[in-house]
Design brief:
With about 130 residues, the chain is mainly beta. Helices cover about 0% and strands about 50% of the residues. The chain starts with a strand and ends with a strand.
Amino acid sequence: QVQLVESGGGLVQAGGSLRLSCAASGATFNDYTWGWFRQRPGKEREAVAATNKNGYNTYYADSMKGRVTVSRDNVKNIVYLQMNSLNSEDTAVYYCAGSAKTFYSSVSYYLDRNYEYWGQGTQVTVSS
């Protein structure tokens, strides 16, 4: 059973940075695509970033492009999301997700329905 546990959320001032971590267990880490999504208050869940199997490629949604970096440690089985220049609009619950499927288009990485496994989420609050 694949389990994902996010950490690193919290309260940060506008303009600040946070690094989120997602520890995966129960999965052959390199065989999975890992994504980050977020759900802002009153909004639908949206993609933030993803890294494909083995981590050779990364994908960034428009939501935070240019301010985030997704990376993975294939030894520790952890996926990271480095977030910079945060503003109040980035206040959200951030989720880590994993998929064993093979994605054939870049758009696939941004669709939450393509991911089978989800963490419980970590709250990020940006104060202005």
